[in-house]
Give the backbone structure.
Amino acid sequence: MLALRAMPRPAALVGALLLVSALGSPLPGQTLPQGMPGRYTLVDIEGHALPYAPTEPGRPADAPVLAVLASTLVVQADGHFVMAMAYRVRQGATEQIFTNPFTGTFVKDTSGYVMRWDGAGETPATWQAERFTFTNEGQTYTYRRPSRPGGS
């Protein structure tokens, strides 16, 4: 599972997303296809609606359940991306909300795209018009562009 950072409330997700999206510098010569840059929202993990608790290989049976509540992926025209994900952990009567920003770059390869995570390796990804997908630890995360006012 992606790493966690404790935050006092879910609104921190928005702040982290805005802060991290302003960081990054352009990649020399890198541009993405027209229509690809923009904001995408996580709609499911392995076909399951959110909130959803993905399975994690090697996770101890007595570990608290970690549920993904929401995520936003912002793709910039120069290939940089920022993703923020919100989680909920329940252990007994205690509930905590965490958010975590992730950054990296998209690079085109022969089979689609590769997400190069800053400090965390690579993940194959696909993009088709309004939809991004990537697979992490054997589970597919599907992001869609939110509907635009007055149309699609």
Summary: The helical segments are 12-21.
